[in-house]
Amino acid sequence: ARAQGAAAPGAPQPSADAKERAKDHFERGLRFYEQGAWEPALAEFLTSREQFATRSATKNAALCLKNLSRHDEALEMFEALLRGRDFTAATDITARICAPGSFSVK
After folding, report:
1. SS3 7
2. What is the pTM of this model?
3. DSSP sequence for 24-83
């Protein structure tokens, strides 16, 4: 899904302003990603995560890192995603890790 998901379990609830800023950065990140501009997309997804951490921003940041050949950092980001409670998405990410070249932003 292209929309942002819920905050990480146990995380403090951010303000409505923080959520809105996170959404703005997330959407800018998507536009950069669609253009293949990995560095600016990564910066936007990471900023979005700082404002309001979501599974979508985490996944997209990991995909940017993978596309930048920053594999160790991408793996760390994917592992952060796997630690989430939504194991359906975690299974999907595991499958993607096992099949390089099939990465895409959804």
Report:
1. strand
2. 0.69
3. HHHHHHHHHHHTT-HHHHHHHHHHHHHHS-BHHHHHHHHHHHHHTT-HHHHHHHHHHHHT
